[in-house]
Amino acid sequence: MRNTAILLISCPDRKGLVAAIADFLYRHGANILHADQHQDNEQGLFFMRVEWDLADFDLDAGTFRERFRRVAERLEMAWRLEYSAEPASMAIFVSRYQHCLVDLLYRHRIGELACRVPVIISNHPDAQPVADFYGVPFRHVPVTGENKAAAARCQMELLEEYGVDLVVLARYMQVLPADFVSRYRQRIINVHHSFLPAFSGARPYQAAFQRGVKLIGATSHYVTEALDDGPIIEQDVRRISHRDQLEDLVQKGRDLERMVLSRAVRWHLEHRILCYGNKTVVFD
Amino acid sequence: MRNTAILLISCPDRKGLVAAIADFLYRHGANILHADQHQDNEQGLFFMRVEWDLADFDLDAGTFRERFRRVAERLEMAWRLEYSAEPASMAIFVSRYQHCLVDLLYRHRIGELACRVPVIISNHPDAQPVADFYGVPFRHVPVTGENKAAAARCQMELLEEYGVDLVVLARYMQVLPADFVSRYRQRIINVHHSFLPAFSGARPYQAAFQRGVKLIGATSHYVTEALDDGPIIEQDVRRISHRDQLEDLVQKGRDLERMVLSRAVRWHLEHRILCYGNKTVVFD
Amino acid sequence: MRNTAILLISCPDRKGLVAAIADFLYRHGANILHADQHQDNEQGLFFMRVEWDLADFDLDAGTFRERFRRVAERLEMAWRLEYSAEPASMAIFVSRYQHCLVDLLYRHRIGELACRVPVIISNHPDAQPVADFYGVPFRHVPVTGENKAAAARCQMELLEEYGVDLVVLARYMQVLPADFVSRYRQRIINVHHSFLPAFSGARPYQAAFQRGVKLIGATSHYVTEALDDGPIIEQDVRRISHRDQLEDLVQKGRDLERMVLSRAVRWHLEHRILCYGNKTVVFD
Amino acid sequence: MRNTAILLISCPDRKGLVAAIADFLYRHGANILHADQHQDNEQGLFFMRVEWDLADFDLDAGTFRERFRRVAERLEMAWRLEYSAEPASMAIFVSRYQHCLVDLLYRHRIGELACRVPVIISNHPDAQPVADFYGVPFRHVPVTGENKAAAARCQMELLEEYGVDLVVLARYMQVLPADFVSRYRQRIINVHHSFLPAFSGARPYQAAFQRGVKLIGATSHYVTEALDDGPIIEQDVRRISHRDQLEDLVQKGRDLERMVLSRAVRWHLEHRILCYGNKTVVFD
Fold first, then answer.
1. Which of A176, B176, C144, C190 is the most exposed, fewest CB within 10 Å of its CB?
2. Number of H helices, E strands in chain C
């Protein structure tokens, strides 16, 4: 496990930004491991992700924040500091389909996902055995037409209780209420089983089958108040033909869903994603 | 150049279809080179494409049609007979962007497309030199807000004059009127520069850029009265990232457009496509 | 679970093959659900897979074999008859890396793989808990430099004991001896973590990293006496860049391995694969 | 046409590199448009590409080289300075197959390739009309078993005469002698019609067809003395099946070849490629 810090910056573009940041880090002994910038020249925006080894770095978190604030204010930066030694805490929400859940738990076990998984929350009891096998507490929160608000409150209390930073909707089939979404802004990742914006909403495989498309897709995105309309993190597709019936689309789609969701989760956990407008920058 | 016949069949599914067709062909000496079937078990439909060498076949076109009609009527078949020695006659429509036109003409020259190209029709004069280089008559038919109906009539007269079987819209940016479309039903192929049904209509690259998708696509389809809604023949996508500006999408999209359009044209010319409902079966 | 029969045929190409087969099936009441042919016109070979509903079929397995033998002998056919109601029995071999094992077991549980899994065999004890979770007997057969032959005998006895039809090497890192391979000809599927024939043999990710390729791949194939040289069933690739270090190749490769192995296994279990020469026909 | 400078750097990794470079550029008024770094942490190497607008930059080329040399020497940098306003001069070599040539010329015409094309050189006369159409001088240099050395001398003289910076082998089927290669080190781009290192050498499509692979590929790379072994710039693949005969591989391969060659050429012309060891960093 490497001991690094990650700094994420977005601000109006201007001359001298990289020089200011690089100089600040250099003066404090940072050994930069990765640095990546992006400029949206049309909108005049600058984005940067820089990761450095903490071995010779002479600032602790508190002092860094204090000192860097002055640089940041002068240059109108929005910024975030993260430490790889402090992994995020990720809750997984699931309904009946468990392929994404099983995939995330296995990836977590073998070290692909740098996080803790303190709790799995489901509106169905089915995933209990899988949660047990992976040693993750499982909380069953039924959701009905009548108890939606109460269920959401219960879920949010659980998230508080378990100190959750990131919510992953692993084929969780209920819509979250607006106050839930706004509390976890850019911290809820969903997978939708279509190539958005095509086939948003319910039953996308049926819609794709009806339309006769030649590729099916899946999309992972941050959840916003507008359904299936949040910033897209990752998408992928797979070829189908007239030989594929609806059940074949569903089967092929499961693999797509697992891939695009797990990539999005990994990038989020590695602090590679910056949102702006309704889009994402994914530093690779 | 091989000398083959191709029979395309669609009908209600029932027992004995393959036996009846195979037996008919066998009794007349057909040496089958390719045969492919598809059954839509949900809708109870049967589709077949069979191609055979004419060397030992003992029926000419007229006699075949007469004899096979009896089999076809008994089994409620819709069918079409095509001869590889009688290539279709393909008109290319183009506006200002010539990448698809240039691509199709080059593919035709090296023998990838089994057809004649008797005429190129454009609402701009720009493509004249390319047409000249490839030795194809070029007809400039300007289209304005006022003369749409007259222009369409002129175009249809040209198609008659040149004996055209297939119209390919190679980034032709004008909408064809309903009577044109209905006269060339399933004989007009368009390329749309998005992954349909996402971003139908005007300016799809701008829309894709705005939405922040991670893959861009292109779609070739038969033209119907409903814009961008005809049966899809082929689609493909390419990965983009936040680094790609709008002009990069346009540039990457050009390659996609050439690929999906040329594949659709080739499959049509090789009589590999059957439409049903609003979908296609593409026998490969 | 549908109740169907599948007939797989390969033979010298000649006129009347489809007619003979279709006629035979029709006369006995077969309701054909899928039929697919392939002709290798260069080598003069014919391949066919036909699947039919047994509901109205008037021949049982014994009678079918007796009657069809006459047709097959006359037309020099090699053929196999399979019943979907009699799923194969698949043993999974695994070493330390469990991603393919876990993937296959989950796919089996949700019904993607039409087989029984009577036993998991490993040269390491690590996979015992996963086997237990999925309720599959686990047999630990250590393999050392000295006991190779004895270990293989032990494995073959286990395969006998559990009535195994298909052996899947899910990242099993030992080479099987020739007598093992020859006893299970075209019934051992391996996954190799490269795009064969590139980087055959040991440590393919290291080799790919050294060579600086821009795509990494994985290959599933039937095992033959020649290492990594059996008939290829499926391959897939994923893009990498200079940013990907060796560990990134390994991580991305795991997903490829799971995909190409599971597809190959499914196609084998659905009797979609015919081998000829050192190649495969995969009827989709 | 934007007026920018591009600086490409490779050196041993150490602290303060980005700070030193960014500070130098900032002090001279550079408005940075793109910057990208890469660190090979294993080998301790640092690579950077930075592009800036020249509008407010206060150093001309000569002064820049003089001043930056001091920074570079201190930090052991290998570096190159390029100006977007001084496009490279690209010669295209071609034999009989013209698909890559035609593709490059069309891309050049519509502005996808930032270069001049002063000459096309071929060992066959066939491409003369295409060269004429695009207004590019065409020089026919026959190559036989006996005149190889003389032909290479003649070609090198032509490159001198036309002031060529980059040689693109657009399916040029002759091997270039070592002195030619060493004179144009990292300035000769070839396309090989396989997924290297698989099927290097002659007749790769036949070899792929024989082996029964499920994907075919193409590779663009810098030419070195070792055949098909130079640093890989780009690769891509396309799926094939048992239905694809050799001629289908060749046809599908043509599209791959055009794509991977044109991408490599574009990246080279935009100064996005750095070689190290036998690998490339491609800054995108």
1. C144
2. 8, 13
Instruction: Count Cβ–Cβ pairs < 8 Å, chain A vs chain D.
Output: 52
Residues D176, D54 share a domain: no
Mean pLDDT of D103-121: 98
Q: Considering the entire predicted model, what is its pTM?
A: 0.97
Domain shared by A67 and A99, yes or no: no
d(CA C245, CA C206): 10
pLDDT the model gives residue D193: 97
The answer on A107 and A63 residing in a single domain is no
Q: What 3-state class would DSSP assign to D199?
A: coil
* C-beta of residue B72 within 8 angstroms of C-beta of residue B79: yes
Q: Is D132 a catalytic residue?
A: no
Nearest C-alpha in D relative to A30: D15
Burial class, D81, CB count within 10 angstroms (exposed 0-12 / middle 13-18 / buried 19+): middle
**Which residues of C form the catalytic set?**
228
Are A99 and A149 part of one and the same domain? yes
Distance (Å, whole) CA C33 – CA C17: 19
Q: What is the 3-state secondary structure (H, E, C) of D252-279?
A: HHHHHHHHHHHHHHHHHHCCCEEEECCE
CA D146 to chain centre: 30
Residue C7 tokens read as 């007939």
Q: Is the pLDDT of residue D190 over 80?
A: yes
pLDDT averaged per 10 residues, chain A (length 284): 91 94 96 91 93 95 96 96 96 98 98 97 98 98 94 98 98 96 97 97 96 98 95 98 95 98 98 95 94
Cβ of C125: how many Cβ atoms within 10 Å?
Answer: 10
pLDDT score for B284: 87
pLDDT in tens, D194-240: 999 999 999 999 999 999 999 999 999 999 999 899 999 999 999 99
Q: Which residue has the tokens 């393959």?
A: B18
Tell whether the torsion through CA atoms of C13, C18, C23 and C24 is positive or negative. Answer: positive
What residues in chain B have per-residue pLDDT under 70? 1
Look up the domain containing D221 and give its range.
88-282
Domain boundary among A83, A113, A140: A83
CATH number, position A240: 3.40.50.170
Inter-chain CB proximity D284 and B99 less than 8 Å = no
Choice among B60, B228, B236, B284 that is catalytic: B228
How many domains in chain C? 2
> Would you say the ipTM is above 0.90?
yes
Give the Cα separation of A39 and A46 in Å (integer): 5
